[in-house]
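User: Mind token order:
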Amino acid sequence: MEAVIVNYRRGRNTQTNNQMVLQPKGAKAKADAQKLIGKTVEWTTSAGNKMTGTVTRVHGGNGAVVARFEKGLPGQAIGTKAKIV
């Protein structure tokens, strides 16, 4: 399943660099997003390196999820596609 990386998980004055908010394709509600918890996320850099993470929780009510990566993704990842396996 494809997903778009929307942003870092953040608050008003903080930003968590190793957690990203993803909008999965086809997930329109919270119930759709809950089925993805625990799955693996893969993002490929322009050089071909794969960075993996895990879907940890639902973000809001419109089907977005939060994925935690071991190391943070770069800012260039925002707006690109990731793969949920």
